[in-house]
């Protein structure tokens, strides 16, 4: 790659995430802009990703859209061996004559997946939500008050100790 700035644009869809063996991302419509500033044996990468990915709602199991708008910056440089100990610098062996950015892009998108991916209130599949409500523990059952619940005597003794201090 010549010294200076190079720009690349990619479109990521379902095929990309299928090849990356993603189990969470069902489909995507993402636009990636990659800017590489080559300075000798250092490559300064800026990745900008915008669009939407399709996930499965944890609550109703229907597809849901998750917006993606993320930027990532990393410096890639040559070293003795592969080293990814830092979030800011990635070292690749000097004998490597190319660097595949697919894993960086995939990881950047994957980090945008929320821990719980659920529809906004009122957007879940109503029939599935009804089944969920029907099978929830405690629905339609009057729970005992705290005083009526049996307390393990060991916890009662510990509670007494904490109240005495």
Please specify the SSE layout and strand pairing.
Elements: E1 4-12, H1 14-19, E2 27-39, E3 42-56, E4 63-79, E5 89-93, H2 102-110, H3 126-135, H4 153-164
Radius of gyration: 25 Å
The largest sheet is: 5 strands, mixed
Low-confidence stretches: none
Given the helix and strand composition, which structural class is it?
alpha+beta
What's the SSE pattern?
Answer: EHEEEEHHH
The percent range for helix content is 10-25%
Q: Overall 3D geometry?
A: flat
Task: Count the E strands.
Answer: 5
Oligomeric state: single chain
Whole-number average pLDDT? 85
The amount of beta strand, in percent, is: 35-45%
What is the count of DSSP helices, taking H or I runs of 4+ residues? Answer: 4
- End-to-end separation in angstroms reads 70 Å
Strand order of the largest sheet: 1-2-3-4-5
Pick out its properties.
22% helix; 5 strands; 165 residues
Folded structure, characterized:
It contains 4 helices and 5 strands; from the N terminus they run βαββββααα. The chain is flat, with a radius of gyration of 25 Å. A 5-stranded mixed beta sheet has the order 1-2-3-4-5. It is of the alpha+beta class and 165 residues long. β3 (42-56) and β4 (63-79) form a beta hairpin. The N and C termini lie far apart (70 Å).
């Amino acid at each position: 790659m010549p010294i200076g700035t190079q720009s690349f644009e990619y479109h990521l869809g379902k095929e990309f995430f299928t090849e990356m063996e993603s189990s969470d991302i069902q489909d995507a419509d993402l636009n990636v802009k990659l800017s590489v500033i080559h300075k000798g044996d250092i490559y300064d990468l800026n990745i900008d990703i915008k669009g939407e990915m399709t996930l499965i709602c944890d609550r109703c199991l229907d597809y849901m859209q998750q917006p993606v708008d993320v930027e990532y910056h990393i410096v890639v440089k040559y070293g003795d061996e592969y080293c990814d100990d830092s979030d800011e610098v990635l070292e690749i062996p000097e004998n490597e004559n190319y660097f595949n950015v697919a894993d960086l892009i995939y990881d950047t998108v994957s980090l945008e997946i929320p821990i719980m991916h659920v529809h906004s209130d009122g957007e879940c599949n109503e029939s599935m939500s009804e089944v969920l409500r029907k099978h929830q523990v405690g629905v339609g059952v009057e729970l005992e008050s705290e005083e009526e619940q049996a307390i393990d005597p060991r916890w009662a003794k510990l509670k007494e100790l904490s109240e005495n201090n």
